[in-house]
Amino acid sequence: MSDDCCGPVVTEAPPAPVVEDACCGTVAPAVPSAVLEVEQPTPWWQDRSLALPLTAGVLWVAGLLLGWAGTDLPALIAHVLALAAGAWTFVPGTLRRLVQGRGRSRLGVGLLMTIAALGAVLLGHVGEAAALAFLFSLAEALEDRSMDRAKQGLRSLLALIPETARVSRPAGPELIPAAELRADDLLLLGAGDRVATDGVIISGRSWLDTSAITGESIPVEMGPGDAVHAGSLNGSGSLTLRATSDGRDNSLTQIVRLVDQAHAAKGERARLADRIARPLVPVVLVVSALIALFGVLTGDPGLWVERALVVLVAASPCAMAIAVPVTVISSIGSASKLGVVIKSGVAVEQLGTIRTVALDKTGTLTRNEPRVVAVATVGGRCEEEVLVLAAALEAASSHPLAAAVLAAADATGAAAAEATEVQEAPGHGITGQVAGREIRVGSPRWIVPGDLAVRAEEMASHGMSLIMVEEDGLVIGVLGVRDELRPDAAEMVAALHVQGIRTVMLTGDNTLTARAIAREAGIDEVHAEQLPADKAAHIRRLSAEAPTAMVGDGINDAPALASATVGIAIGVTGAAAAVESADVVFTGTELRQLPVALAHARRGRRIMTGNIALALVIIVVLFPLALFGVLGLAAVVLIHEVAEVVVIANGMRAARTRVITGERGAARPRRAVRPRLLTGRGGAT
What we know:
Layout: H1 3-6, E1 18-20, E2 27-29, H2 48-68, H3 72-87, H4 91-100, H5 109-122, H6 126-149, H7 154-158, E3 164-169, E4 172-177, E5 186-189, E6 199-203, E7 206-209, E8 220-222, E9 227-228, E10 233-234, E11 239-243, H8 251-266, H9 272-298, H10 301-314, H11 318-337, E12 340-342, H12 345-351, E13 356-359, H13 361-365, E14 366-377, H14 383-394, H15 402-412, E15 419-425, E16 429-434, E17 437-442, H16 453-461, E18 465-471, E19 474-485, H17 489-498, E20 502-506, H18 511-521, E21 525-528, H19 532-545, E22 548-552, H20 558-563, E23 566-570, H21 576-581, E24 584-586, H22 593-627, H23 633-651, E25 676-679
Parallel strand pairs: 13-20, 13-22, 20-21, 21-25, 22-23, 23-24
Antiparallel strand pairs: 1-2, 3-4, 5-11, 6-9, 6-11, 7-8, 7-10, 12-24, 14-19, 15-16, 16-17, 17-18, 18-19
Helix pairs in contact: 2-3, 2-6, 3-6, 5-6, 5-10, 6-11, 9-10, 10-22, 11-22, 11-23, 12-22, 14-15, 22-23
């Protein structure tokens, strides 16, 4: 396979990136072997990672009830058990990170939570320590679960590779497991077969559906010398291919690796709370240690050690620990009312930062339903007659565009014609007799457009696939077939522009089609003829410039979805791999919900940021007051509890939904601009 066609073939997985948890220090390689084995998702009630946090929550509530009932000892026991259950999920990892980490990698919310819980226990406030442990462990468990689920859809990628392949051997055709295929094997492909590994056609012609890999909406005619990707679906012709890659290392397995590497690189993105906690933790530790040391040196260690612990409690992010999860849960819950499923707290934060939206074309911006959108005739023939003649032959065809021709003919209301002696020429077209006339229907490479050459070229320039119709050796018409833009696509793009969000189209489809669709939608920039690896590379580049969301629905979009700041999948029609690789899933196909979801997430992030700011203000105010003994432990705890109530109430405001189409001060949609078309792997014009 040449680099010019499909890019360099990766025969060895790149080194596994290491993922470091921002809080608790889990370190794991993320790139599996060429063919991944993915476990089925575990129901939440059977998920062991949730068992301890939920147990901690039940015990904490039980302790509160027992305390209110006046049974102090049972309440203390319940809180101690709750603290142990919750702390077990993050304290061991925090300590390992503290010992094994380097520099700032040792610091995070986990360490501050550990210290705060310890300080609260030493001061006799076990209930508050249990609450901190429960809430933090639950937030971490839900975050981990969302990341684990991101890999479940990878199995659907590999499902496109058939279990067996028919190869040519000296003794005759032989059926072997697809995993045993080797480069240079000769594959025999029949009608309707899937390609088991990448190859080059040696003989035969056919139409191949490559949408799973390239995203091209309309099947592509291929013949000798053309490269074919694993997972492509053959049409009605018979083909012989020479394999260019092994059965375990081809286009689809590379997509799996790309998705997994992207998730590993993205990992547990440093959350806002972690970025704040890292500089805060060493300050609190140093000051507390200095306070205790001062007490030892002055001969009054009891007073100053207790004051040091009060400082620890005063600096604990209690409000931050509670308010962020509350805001996240409120945002996720209200987003679901908009038909938007947000999978994690990180996704909520990142979705509110998006400044660039990259969109797939086929099935996302378009209907993924090719239709006849134009008919040109010659010699005084009417459009209805040309459609009826074409439909008469296509009624017996297995070609994917046949349904579009039949639907167009039915829409005319004209009486159907009956064709006889129908024969299909794979990769070319179809011939037959209609009312004694010899009719041919096929591609312009098989039927010369003749007098319709200019009109055919014009239709092709608008991104249409052409079907020529010939009668008794004379061309009488040409049909233009195209996957049409969704009716709300242009509205969605305009609404994004109102919010100041840049739009980019990434598609594996041909440049003419991409340019036509982008012009209608008003999209700023187009990258056409992109393979999955190319899309992922563009997304990484865009994400480096500004927070970027990728919107797609196909298997070929999975690496780009995983590489984006936020991946957004169209859930109803989307492939399982795309849905699972994404951070956000639309349960419907309403594109106008995209700008609404982004505005909703931006509002939720503002609330979250406000909560964190309030939590920081509480810490900044309490810290010196506790340091100088102005406030004792009871006052510090009371202020923390009041602050928690305030930030929880503020966080619950994120549960309200409202339609927002622009930022403050935005007036009217930006006018649609002519798309700048960039084609090929390197983006050359």
